[in-house]
Amino acid sequence: MRKPYIASVAALTCGVLFSSLAALPAAASENPSSIGEEFREGLESAATRGLPDAPDALREYDNLSESEHEQFDRALEALASGDVDPAQVPGVEIVTDFGSTHVSPVSSDGPRASLAAATASWSAYCTQRVSLLGVVVTETRVDADFDTGGGKVTGIRNQRARVVTNFQPLTTVDFKEIRKETGTIGTVRALVRVERGPIKGLGSQTENWQALAVNGSGNVTSCRWGY
Questions:
Q1: Residues 109-141: pLDDT tens digits?
Q2: Is pLDDT of 222 > 90?
Q3: Which of 196, 127, 124, 133 is nearest to 165 (CA)?
């Protein structure tokens, strides 16, 4: 079962990934286009290596107007500097995609609603894709297997968090830890860390939790930012 939707950054606590354009000075640097050129070179390299999102991202970036390129490049430069606090950014969209699939036999037949009291296992996922002016920049994913029975989540196995895509120059995105919790709702939480700056270990760091929640019927009830 797949349920994607698009939300503006104002509706989500996803500041861990982007910073406010409104707070930027008129001229972010003496050469604001350099980081855009670096971004494009990175996309070209990623496309050559066969990364699946890179060709589309490169095409979308090349289709931006001159003013959109200037807006895009200033935002990337601010992100890389780590000097701007996370906030709402005009032009940013978050695509949240989630779903679950039955992966083992159950002890009763019928529609999913009747499986709450049965014993079953479900594979579920939650992805958060961030784009700027239609160009994908970062995507992270959390997935796990959820065992259900008696209307509850009785176990969580094979939990994993990974960075699917990160095209931000001078930026490292990774996961620090994963936590899990069973009960009426089973939840997997992964702590995302974003470090911005030219020298790893010395840049500006921000963190946020990406959470995936599943109920006793195997339905994904939440795919969100925040604990």
A1: 555 555 555 589 999 999 999 888 899 999 999
A2: yes
A3: 127
C-alpha 95/C-alpha 81 separation (Å) is: 25
Contact 24, 85 (CB under 8 A): no
Look at residue 161 and give its three-state secondary structure.
strand
Work out the angle between the directed axes of helices 34-48 and 66-81 (0-180°, nearest 10).
90
DSSP string, 13-41: --TTT-B-STTS-S-SSS-TTHHHHHHHH
DSSP 183: B
Q: How far lies 184's CA from each of 136, 142, 158, 159, in Å?
A: 35, 20, 19, 18
Instruction: Number of helices (H) and strands (E) in the chain: give both, helices first.
Output: 3, 9
Give 93's contacts (C-beta < 8 A, 6+ positions apart).
6, 7, 8, 9, 130, 131, 134
Structure tokens at 115: 């499986």
Return the axis-axis angle of helices 34-48 and 54-62, rounded to nearest 10°.
140
Q: Residues 172-200: pLDDT tens digits?
A: 999 999 999 999 999 999 999 988 877 77
Contact between 188 and 178 under an 8 Å Cβ cutoff? The reply is: yes
Query: What pTM was estimated for this model as a whole?
Result: 0.77
β pairing state of 204-215 and 171-181:
unpaired
Question: Looking at the predicted structure, is the pLDDT value of residue 48 above 90?
Answer: yes
Average pLDDT, the chain: 80
